[in-house]
Amino acid sequence: MSVTSREFRLDSPTAEADSEAAAAVLRAALPYLVVTPRALRWQVENAPETQHHRLLLAEADGQLLGCARTGIYYDSSEPGQAYLNIYVHPERRGRGAGRALLAAGEAYVTGLDARANFCWSLDDERSMAFAERNGYRRGRSAHFQRLALGDGTLPPMPPCPPDVEVRTGASFGDDLHGIWVADNEAALDEPDDLDVEPTSYDLWLSQYWMHPEHDRELTSVVTVDGEVAAFSLAITDGGSRYMSGMAGTRRVHRRRGLAKLAKSASLHRARAAGYTEAFTNNDSGNEPMLAINKWFGYQECATEVRWIRDLTG
Q1: Global pTM?
Q2: Same domain for 170 and 273?
Q3: N or C: which terminus of the chain carries fewer CB neighbours within 10 A?
Q4: Using one digit for the tens of pLDDT, what is the confidence trace for 82-96?
């Protein structure tokens, strides 16, 4: 059985079937994500030109074994930082799909003059051995967490102070600059292996706010005296699964429990809308958000590790 890799193409007659199969692989390999075929196609079509995003497919005998998302971190303060995240269906491991995707992905980003490659993997022994065997060094780790929304254990919403209002993302219409400022500020303070730069408003709008999995009705924004202070972005699959895309508070408003309030409002609306599972992911060093999620009742369900390889040697 020969494993081959190819680039997913929107103009291919098999594009819809390919995106369905790739989404199925992603859901099987990382069942803690919210991912849809529509979103995979959207990302390929709408990624910024400087990201050079590609979706790679590995197959054998007409069966998709795995896929990879690769490109350049366009928001990195250091040029030439690439990503290559490989996903192989758990029932199809050991057939060479990971090796094929790694070779194709590294060749692609090397052709873009990438200086370093960043990859995520689960912390299982097999995945870590694969990364180390191929010259990657271990970086930071992060935890996937799950919350059952339908079992009645979601805590009541915290009290809302007199100067505070909780709104939906949809209620802001086109007046989104305050949310953009808060998101940029929170993102810059997140622990990471990469140093990132602020995202321009137009890019933030196109890549985050207009993302097809972003649910603006379930996204919560907390204002203090009318100013955006905290937020919790909601990602959904339109069915039963909800995921926190990003939550944070502007520095001047921190230590008031506003991120907890925003996330609580979002989770309560998600439960009322019929979502039964909530997922989130936090860096192991993000102690404030880990504590908030513990308060909600999230349970750790997996740990992932970031790997880095120098491509200049």
Answers
A1: 0.95
A2: yes
A3: C
A4: 999 999 999 999 999
CATH of the domain at 63: 3.40.630.30
Residue type present at position 45: E
**Is the domain of 84 the same as that of 168?**
no
**181-209 pLDDT per residue, tens:** 999 999 999 999 999 999 999 999 999 99
Name the residue range of residue 224's domain: 147-303
Same domain, 172 and 273: yes
CB 35 within 8 A of CB 26: yes
Give the chain's domain count.
Answer: 2
Distance between CA atoms of residues 223 and 219, nearest Å: 13
Query: Residue 313: pLDDT band by 50, 70, 90 thresholds?
Result: confident
